[in-house]
Amino acid sequence: MEDKIFIAPRLTGSRFEDHSMPISILEDFTALEDLIIEVAKGIYLDENLNRKRVPKGFTDGVYLKLVDIEEGSTIPKFVIASIMSLSSTLPLENLDNFSYFEKAKDKIITIIETVNDGGLPSEEDGKYLSFFNKIGKNLLDDESIDFGYNYNTKLSSNAILNKTTRKKILLSREQKLEYTDNIKLYSLIPAIDQETNTFFIETEFGKIQCPLTENIKETVFTAFNEYKNKTYISLKGTALFNWHDKITKIEEIESMDVLDSLDVSLRINNLLKLENNWYEGQGKSLNKEKLTIFGNYFNSYFNNNLPLPAIFPKLNGDIQLEWQKNDINIVINIQLESLKSSFFYYNDNDEYESELSLNTKEEWNKLNELIDIYINGKENTFA
């Protein structure tokens, strides 16, 4: 018998364009499973006022099972199953309690739709909203999940969860003015307090105190000792934000790395903050989406064995990459809109020019080879 699809949310965003699903998103669906079960229990008790608790075995072994991923962008198909149904000749939808899980799904969809329509979840639904601390937590800025998507008719719904909707849901909780979210920060470490086993990071949000755990001590002390040299770290974890979107507390640090002074991701992060007229009343701000795409290409295809470039903004909103070694100079002017690029090498006795389009792996391989030729003295096959 073919499984009946319980829910098939549609995921959109750059990471889902190849119709795959990052493994981190599974954490969001695990939290959705927990929420569905909790809401189903609440609905049962609301409809059976003579009961103080759900029947024994009501939710035992109930779980969401991923059975397929469909294109468009990415649509994971889930059935709802239970250990009991595995040993029964009846599918789960024929069991007495199945209707409560269907109603639970509909209630969750309604909560998201209500917030997207400018309303607030009902007071009785307030007890479920904390689950959204995990549901949607792993979405990036350009990503969303349509929980009400109809995969049969291919119609979208208004139950679309993105970072903005998630924030509204979490802040709508009674007397809650804070919410949690994943973070990636670039910061300096100006101080360590060994007595309290904490350290401070210096960020655009100001100085923030963090727990000094054993697994990051070596990295923290390295960055602290290099503070005067402006040695940055990248930090990934979970933070608590206030309703002004300012970090009030770092709740968990998943990873931390000391960065090279020419780290491209750090430099791009800084360039993203440039506003119009950034240089003496001149200079266009850089297109954030296009700059991020360039950064993704660089991190995917640039040869890690080659030296990193210095990256500079241009007044017209494009960027320039530069390498220097003794009398060797390489300059690449990149049009962010198209990633069409002009490669120029020169020294005291020689020069070379080439045109590249840095939107394919093949063109990046050509760039890597050109840099290898002129920086490391590899034989020139392009002249």
| Strand order of the biggest β-sheet | 8-7-6-9-10
Please tell me how large the radius of gyration is: 26 Å
Level of helix content? 25-40%
Uncertain runs: 85-91
**How would you describe the shape?**
globular
List the keywords.
15 strands, alpha+beta, five-stranded antiparallel sheet, single chain, about 375 residues, OB fold (Dihydrolipoamide Acetyltransferase, E2P)
What do these coordinates show?
- By secondary structure, the protein is α+β, with helices and mostly antiparallel strands.
- It has 3 domains: 10-176, no CATH class; 180-258, Beta Barrel (OB fold (Dihydrolipoamide Acetyltransferase, E2P)), CATH 2.40.50; 264-376, no CATH class.
- It has 8 helices and 15 strands.
- It has helices spanning 25-47, 83-86, 98-116, 163-171, 217-225, 264-271, 288-301, 361-376, and strands at 10-12, 62-71, 74-82, 144-146, 160-161, 178-193, 198-203, 206-211, 233-242, 247-258, 310-313, 319-325, 328-334, 340-346, 351-357.
- Strands 8-7-6-9-10 form a 5-stranded antiparallel β-sheet. A 5-stranded antiparallel β-sheet has the order 11-12-13-14-15. The protein has a 3-stranded antiparallel β-sheet with strand order 1-4-5.
- β6 (178-193) and β7 (198-203) form a beta hairpin.
- α1 packs across α3 (98-116).
- The radius of gyration is 26 Å and the shape is globular.
- The N and C termini lie far apart (65 Å).
- 25% of the residues are buried.
